[in-house]
Structure to design on (110 residues):
């Protein structure tokens, strides 16, 4: 039996009305990552704050912040492709091979 890699595939759009640079997008990624960390810390009680939210509400907020990180990261991919000619699809293949080489995932068919 062949083993297959398991993927979570999401498609996020290129945002309209923006003129992001590599630097502005990198800063936005950091900002969104900070908001995700804040949500996890605050809503999970790690920061010491008392929050009266259900588990579902907490997880919904964390998922929203995670998707903000993903959207901003995809925006950076568009900048790299359009402004610098980076082949993101090739970089994804190289990334997967790196994960295989490090033993984080098994090569398909093994």
């Amino acid at each position: 039996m062949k083993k297959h890699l398991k993927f979570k595939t999401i498609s996020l759009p290129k945002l309209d009305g923006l003129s992001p640079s590599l630097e502005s997008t990198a800063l936005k990624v950091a900002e969104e990552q900070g908001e995700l960390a804040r949500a996890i810390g605050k809503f999970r009680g790690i920061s010491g704050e008392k929050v009266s939210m259900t588990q579902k509400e907490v997880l919904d907020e964390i998922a929203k912040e995670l998707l903000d990180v993903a959207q901003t990261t995809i925006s950076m991919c568009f900048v790299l492709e359009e402004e610098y000619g980076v082949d993101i699809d090739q970089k994804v293949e190289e990334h997967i091979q790196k994960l295989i080489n490090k033993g984080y995932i098994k090569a398909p068919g093994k």
About this structure: Residues 44 and 86 are 38 Å apart (CA to CA). The mean pLDDT is 89. The chain is about 60% helix and 0% strand. The longest helix spans residues 55-84.
